[in-house]
Amino acid sequence: MARYTGPKCRLCRREGAKLFLKGDRCYTDKCAHERRPYAPGQHGRIRKKMSDYAIQLREKQKVRRMYGVLEEQFRDYFHRADLSKGVTGANLLMFLERRLDNVIYRMGFANSRDQARQLVRHGIFLLNGRRVNVPSLLVRVGDEITVREKNKKSPVIAEAQQVIARRGNPAWVEVDGENLKGKVTTLPTREDLQFPINEQLIVELYSK
Question: Which residues have C-beta within 8 Å of that of residue 150, sequence separation ≥ 6?
């Protein structure tokens, strides 16, 4: 499957916001967005007046890149959100939050969503006691995620556990760091997502 493999910090600079794509590095003074808070490229420092369409597009790209999904996947999430009860924009964000790779990142078993996605594909997690390798699975209330016994001493997971205090766990998951397992206690809500996102711009973009 096609996926962006270039410099991740470049994406943050392009969107003008920290997308937390490189884990703990994003919380240090090494963060490229903090050191160079302007768009990449020769003309990155030049401020241009953006059209309404450009503003909507940038908001969509920001969210899509933050969660690491392709355009076709993102559009599919939007259509599902549009068909669901409630506010379409909030539904879209909640579908993305419920992705297995994102939940593992939120629980502190990975330093970034990209790393969580890779770990899931390697099959080192159990979902309700069964091995899974599909990062896009949507979790449900009561689902329990556990690190496989043979992988509990992985240095990658140990490092992620050491830096989880910087982010903190969301209120909708319950984590047992000692036994490396977590449980989804309730579905996430829009209020649980503190990252500055204007989902209405995405709705307006896809409604054209």
Answer: none
